[in-house]
Design brief:
Layout: E1 2-6, H1 11-22, E2 26-31, H2 34-43, E3 48-52, H3 58-68, E4 75-78, H4 93-121, E5 124-129, H5 142-164, E6 169-174, E7 179-180, H6 183-187, E8 196-197, H7 198-210, E9 215-216, H8 220-229, H9 234-249
Parallel strand pairs: 1-2, 1-4, 2-3, 4-5, 5-6, 6-9, 7-8
Length: 253
Amino acid sequence: MKALITGASSGIGKDMARYLASKKIDLILVARRKERLEELKKELDCNVKIIVLDLNEEKNVYKLYEDCKNDNIDILINNAGFGLFGDFVDTDLSRELEMINVNVKAPHILTKLFLKDFVKKDAGYILNVCSSAGFMAGPKLNTYYASKNYITKLTMAINEELRHKKSKVHVCALCPGPTNTEFNKVAKGTFSIKEASSSYVAKYGIDKMFKGKMIILPKLSMKLGNFGLRFLPYRVQLMIAYKVQWKKSRPKK
C-alpha cells in the first residue's frame, strides 16, 4: 500500500507517517519544510518520497495531484492546517484567507480528485484530519472552527453518498480535541486543558480509518462532549466555547 500525507513535517501528520511506516506502507510526504521532511525520511523503514509544497497556493494543490495520480495511492490523509486566535474584528484577513486555502480548499480539491480515482477502482481510504471544533462555532478561534465545520460535514456527506452506492472506498473524519502539536505556537494561544499525544491520536485515527469509521473521536472525553452538545442550546454552546478560547488566548502572568 501507499499513503500520501499532507502536513507531514510535524505533529499528527509526522506521527501518522511513523505509524504507517511501521506497518510497511510506503509514503509520499508533503509539507513546506524540506529539512524536516528529509529528517523524517531518514528514520522511516519504508519507501518514502518527499514533496515540498505550500498548499496555500491553489496551483500547488493541483500540481500535487498531477504529480501523484499515477503513483497508485491507496490512502490520502489531508492533515495540513492551522489556526488563528483572536476576535474576528481584530484578526488579519490575509492570514484568514490563507487558512481557508489550506484548511478548506486544499482538502476539498484533493478529496475530490483522489476520490474519483478511488471510486473507479472501488478501493481506497481518505482520512480528513478535522477537529472536535468541527461540531461547534468558535468565538476567538472563529475562522478555524468554521473551516473544520466545513471539512467535517463535507466528509460526512461523502461518506453517506458512498454508503448508498455500496462503495468499498472509505472517507473518514478524524476529530481530535486538544493535541500536543505546534498548533498553539502557530495560532498564538495555549490549551487550557490536558492535551493528548499526537502519536496516540495518529495511531487511533489510522486504526479506525482502516475499520471504516466515519467520525473518529480519539478520547472518551471528546465522545462524551460531542454527545452532550446535542442537548445544549446554541447560546450555551457559544458561551462555553468563548470561555475555553478566552483562556487560551489571554496573556500569561
